[in-house]
């Protein structure tokens, strides 16, 4: 037996289709707005911390008469130097006004939040879960930022550190409010941070990864 569709049933089906399309369009619009807001947050977050940390780096270099003993070589023919990193970080954080210091057990002592993603590559072990939570030195600053010094192996600080632009506040994601600053030095004696600002961190989709991202 064939059941004939009534006009009323057809109109109901058309209305459902119309509302489904409207709902889909609305969802897509909300997603676009949300992503745009996140990207704007990431950019503002990064700009704020990058300016203050660049200033602190330059001031520390000046305080140490141009030789920090803590940098990666920017050019061929130069050698990396990690020999003075302990002393460098002491001076560096003093120029940022430390309010809390965790020599070990940074998560337990409340210097850092509960991060969900960590480095898994052997070459980035200084940002592994155990190193960040248990062994790396961390500092909380008066401007609400916090830093985690990259150590590899333990008790061997290197010229790179993770910076959380808003401390324990969310989203606590690499490229959004968590960045990695790598200290470089060129043959002219200039110090600066490497353009890859999530180096060794598990970068999140949609976040900032390079300095050029904020110029887009």
Keywords:
216 residues, alpha+beta, 4 helices, 7 strands, globular
Describe this entry's structure for a reader.
This protein has 216 residues and is α+β, with helices and mostly antiparallel strands. It has one domain. It is 36% helix and 17% strand. It is built from 4 helices and 7 strands; from the N terminus they run H-E-H-E-H-H-E-E-E-E-E. Strands 1, 2, 3, 4, 5, 6 and 7 form a 7-stranded mixed sheet that branches. The longest helix has 57 residues.
The radius of gyration is 24 Å
Query: Between the first and last Cα atoms, what is the distance in angstroms?
Result: 64 Å
The portion of residues forming beta strands comes to 15-25%
> Could you name the ranges where pLDDT drops below 50 across 5 or more consecutive residues?
22-38
Q: For this entry, what is the oligomeric state of its chains?
A: single chain
- State mean pLDDT (0 to 100 scale): 85
Helix-and-strand structural type = alpha+beta
Total helical elements = 4
What is the number of strand segments? 7
């Amino acid at each position: 037996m064939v059941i004939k569709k009534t006009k009323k049933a057809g109109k109901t089906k058309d209305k459902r289709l119309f509302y489904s399309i409207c709902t889909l369009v609305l969802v897509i619009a909300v997603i676009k707005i949300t992503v745009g807001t996140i990207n704007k947050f990431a950019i503002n977050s990064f700009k704020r911390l990058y300016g203050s940390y660049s200033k602190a780096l330059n001031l520390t270099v000046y305080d140490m008469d141009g030789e920090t003993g803590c940098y990666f070589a920017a050019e061929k023919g130069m050698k990396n130097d990690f020999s003075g990193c302990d002393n460098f970080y002491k001076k560096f954080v003093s120029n940022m006004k430390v309010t809390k210091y965790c020599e070990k057990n940074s998560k337990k002592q409340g210097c850092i939040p509960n991060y969900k993603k960590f480095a898994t590559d052997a070459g980035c072990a200084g940002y592994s879960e155990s190193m960040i939570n248990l062994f790396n030195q961390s500092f909380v600053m008066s401007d609400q930022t916090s830093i985690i010094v990259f150590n590899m192996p333990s008790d061997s600080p290197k010229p790179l550190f993770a910076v959380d632009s808003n401390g324990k506040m969310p989203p606590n994601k690499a490229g959004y409010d968590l960045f990695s600053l790598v200290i470089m030095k060129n043959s002219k004696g200039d110090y600066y941070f490497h353009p890859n600002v999530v180096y060794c961190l598990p970068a999140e989709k949609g976040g900032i990864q390079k300095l050029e991202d904020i110029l887009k």
